[in-house]
Amino acid sequence: MIKRLHVGTRLSEAAIVAGTIYLAGQVPEQHPDADIETQTREVLGHIDRLLAECGSSKAHLLSVQIYLADIAEIARMNAVWDAWVAPGHTPPRATVQARLADPRWRIEVVAVARQIEVE
Question: Does the predicted TM-score (pTM) go above 0.90?
Answer without folding.
Answer: yes
